[in-house]
Write a structure and sequence with these properties.
The two termini are about 35 Å apart. This protein is globular. The chain has 14 helices and ten strands. The longest helix is centred in the C-terminal third of the chain and has 19 residues. It has two domains: about 240 residues, TIM Barrel; about 60 residues, Orthogonal Bundle (Non-ribosomal Peptide Synthetase Peptidyl Carrier Protein, Chain A). It is α/β, with parallel strands linked by helices. Helix 1 packs antiparallel against helix 11, helix 4 runs parallel beside helix 6 and helix 11 runs antiparallel to helix 12. Helices cover about 45% and strands about 15% of the residues. Bound molecules: flavin mononucleotide (FMN).
Length: about 325
Amino acid sequence: MLNIGKLQVNSNFLLAPMSGVTDYPYREIVKKFKPGLVFSEMIASRALLAQNSKTMKMIKKTDNYLSAVQIAGCDPEIMAEASKICEDNGADIIDINMGCPVKKVVNGYAGSALMKDEILATKILESVSNSVKVPVTLKMRKGWDDNSLNAPKIAKIAENSGIKMITIHGRTRCQMYKGKSDWKFVKNVKSNVKIPVLVNGDITSKENLNQALKDSKADGVMIGRGSYGRPWIFQELFSNKKKFKINNNYKKQIILNHLQLSLDHYGKDIGLKSFRKHLGWYSKSINNSNEFRLKINQCTDEIILKNLINDFF
Ligand SMILES: Cc1cc2nc3c(=O)[nH]c(=O)nc-3n(C[C@H](O)[C@H](O)[C@H](O)COP(=O)(O)O)c2cc1C
């Protein structure tokens, strides 16, 4: 159980925002396994203001499930306007991205670059949290690099600005995805604020979940890549069974359901293409998966693809 402002969330295991992964079909699939919240992909705040159909599709509300929309940008007013649009379109939470390390984003002074400019970061935190009624949360890294580990300081600023929960990915921006997520560092953030703090990075099993919670003293976890090809990880982490195993027929049903959601959401061409990476993850470490992947990467017909899935799984 997690209290995010006025929102009560039933589980403290949340699905992390991931560009190109946590789209509407993925969130619909993951919600079956009851994470506390699902997060959208990061959405550029300027794109939200234009309200074009591609962007509005990205913020499509996960049906009957608590969902957060994550926004990115560097202009406090545009970020505020964008968050209102998300709220009007059903977002239960607005999350601010201060963690994205990619050049295209940080060169525009958004994402983790904001951690280098505490004045601008403060303006954005205040402006967004004052503009919507739903809770506003923040996701960031430890800092820009090892010489500027200012996440605890920004967390305090965020709390004073009305932010209701903070997630820390235990790496610096300059680390990108190298090394290991530093769960122990998150303790410094946790002890600096009263709002819930989540630990994120490299959590993939019950064992390392328990270790991450112990090391960080965090109130919950956010899981990203650990859900690739196993959206049931959220159920697995709750299960008392030593060896959790998903029933094969159910797994096949989930995969076919995911494919259909993808086709319905994007149409045939993009739907099939964007689903291939998920099929790659679903089939990983199963016998003959290389051969299967070769076949699916060439397949452009949904009926043939469904038959291939039926045969393989
Ligand atoms: C493909 C991919 C896309 C990501 N996109 C976002 C994003 O849009 N917003 C964000 O805050 N973090 C993003 N992240 C970072 C994840 O949310 C998470 O912080 C990171 O992957 C570490 O957690 P994990 O080890 O559980 O994956 C992305 C990560 C990956 C691998």
